Amino acid sequence: VAMRGDDPTLAAELASMAAEYARLNPGTASAEGMAAHAAAIVSGDETELDRAVSVLANGPRQLLYARALVDQAQARVRRSDHRGAVPALTRALDIFRSHGSTREAGRTQDRLRELGAAGRRRPTRTARPESGWKALTATEQRVARLIADGHTNRSAAAELSISPHTVNTHLGAVYRKLGVTSRVQLTHAVP
């Protein structure tokens, strides 16, 4: 966002903060991948961007991986490697769709179309049910399974590399969609 807003100073500060976060969290794929991704965006270093994609591919935060893939594809398009961009965009599209990120999936599909990879049509939107297991997003399902397995909000957050507050927000949606009011009821509702 800082680079698109033409504020390279802010972008460099944010990249530095991401690098410090990665330093404080050694071995955490999402922290290391975010830091490499931010550094690559600021420097324009494709090698660093490739490293970010590689690290994030093995991490739990697949949306971060998909965003890095999109940036990797854009870098390839800038150097006229359209054929190399299509697989990255296709993988990103699959991830965005599987996580219910329809806006990002639509943008990625449009980029694929611009590159002449129009064989993959945007699926018609089917309404997600309002209740029941199929009403849950992929992240809500992961949160529900972890809580049903006995995790606390804090340990589920650590497992998913998100904040406990975010787990609590997802858990509220899970309770509402499954029609449960306690962790015990949730345990019985999770398939």
Contiguous helical run count: 10
The proportion of residues forming helix, as a percent range, comes to 55-70%
Low-confidence stretches: none
Q: What is the radius of gyration?
A: 19 Å
Q: Tell me the number of strands.
A: 0
The protein's oligomeric status is single chain
Question: How would the global form be characterised?
Answer: globular
Give the N-to-C terminal Cα separation. Answer: 40 Å
Strand count, sense and closure of the main sheet?
A: none
Order of helices and strands: HHHHHHHHHH
| Helix-strand category | mainly alpha
Average predicted confidence as pLDDT: 86
Strand content: under 5%
Annotation keywords:
globular, 191 residues, 10 helices, 0% strand, mainly alpha
